[in-house]
Amino acid sequence: MRISSAIRRFRAFEDGSLSVETVLIFPLLAWALSAMLVFWDGFKVNNNAIAATYTVADLVSRQTSPITDDFVKGADKLYAKIVQNNNDNELRLTVVQMSESTTPGGDPEPRLVWSHGTSGLPAREKIEDITAMVPLMAVGTSMIMVETASDWTPPFDIDFASMTFRNVFFSSPRYVPQVKFDNGGDDSIGFVYDDGDAA
């Protein structure tokens, strides 16, 4: 009897500040939940972009025949598929070869062999723009440079700015000394600076 009376009294008790606390804390909880979803989505897209860049680099490194514009466009589509991002994505492939210095007694120097970009990303034209990024290489060897960019927009408007995730990955050719590019003589498709055979 005492228990039932206590329950009835508790149920009829209307004092307290629960409604006030709810009004104060609910917006903060909603913002925190939205922020967690935004951060999770951003990290997911960034991680996917890194994995996609590595995948494209591995794919290109396995080619034994000269790749074409269609191949690069296909690699771009593969990259976008892995990233799972509805915004713009860009891809650029560049092959760099280490050559003997043009000055007597100088250090070996990297040089551009060919470069091709997609989605409006222009081909590389100056080796000086990427010299600092080129890893150590033996004279006569070449590496494939894969550059990607993925625009990301937060799924919720919580005053978190949009950003572009950029990644650069270098890979050595697996089965041939150098992966070549065939633009059919059309430099508007991609620049082939030389055949890359000379060290």
TrEMBL record:
Keywords: Membrane, Transmembrane, Transmembrane helix
Bilayer-spanning residue ranges: 20-40
Name the UniProt record assigns to this protein: Flp pilus assembly protein TadG
Species for this entry: Kangsaoukella pontilimi
